[in-house]
Fold:
Amino acid sequence: MFARPAQAIETSGTAHAAVGGGYDSNAGRDLDGLSQGDGLLLGTLQLDGALAPAEGSFNLSGSYDLGAKRFFTLSEDDLVAQDAQLEGSGQVGPLTLGLDGRAKDKRSRGGDRDYTDLSAGALGAGRAGKVPLRLDLGVERFLYHPDPEYDFTGPTLAFSVTVPLPAKQRLIFSLGGSLRGYDPASRDGSGQIRADRTGSAGAMWRYRGKVIGEVGYDFLADGSNQFGRSYQRHRLAGSVALFLPFEIALAAQGALQITRFPDGVALSPELMLATDDESTNSLSVSLSRELPAGLLVELQGAGYEADYATNGLHYHRATVELRLGWQY
Structure:
């Protein structure tokens, strides 16, 4: 009897590393009256990989992003951010079933905005005719290291439908929700421990041709049992990427949003700014060009703004960065 030959494994992956410098007008992401600007040095690393049997229906993919910033004078705002994701899936009849996980972590030297966000879950994907469907069920654990009052754990749900359209277009509809049970440190004056329910809905148009573009609308509602913690957010966002003359790549993205607070006050806007990069109006533009030997030079400018009119608080931040990268 002959032994069955080992099945070949196909692998793929990319790597990108960059170093550079720039300026941040609000290094600590503080509200008006407290913000300070500073120059900085930065470094980034991005790794993506996947493996699968040459003849099989199982796939394993993962990614890891690392970023670090070192400010010239505001050393307490030096920052290290990490984001790791892993997904394994396999074909079971007409369905794709799998498991996934993600870990995000941000640390500053001063420690006043450090957090860790962990999530894991199961996924199921299939098709209704030519329309792809996907359902994700999971659990999230969030740790805000400066104050356990904001730590929470709870289940999450996300559902998406992708509708293919002619001429390389797609419409993507999504629904999501979560339950968040907070740490006992969140107990208010009445002895009630904080508990939130979130719900979201969105629609996005996407085009993939010589120009890559997308425009989408998202609605997010966070309802809390504590005063001043609830909010509702409407967000319109879009992005475009294309090549200019001289092989220069242009990428731009922007977002406009309206945030409402049903109680008439926002008790923790600083936390929203520290943990959610998508909690502001924003505009960013980058120009990049490939160089010989796998090198890439990139110039990026960005601006961020938020207005907490109920509190009379405002947030402004502008950045400019120049990077030299290597990609494989």
Notes: The mean pLDDT is 91. The radius of gyration is 22 Å. Helices lie at 269-275. The longest helix spans residues 269-275.
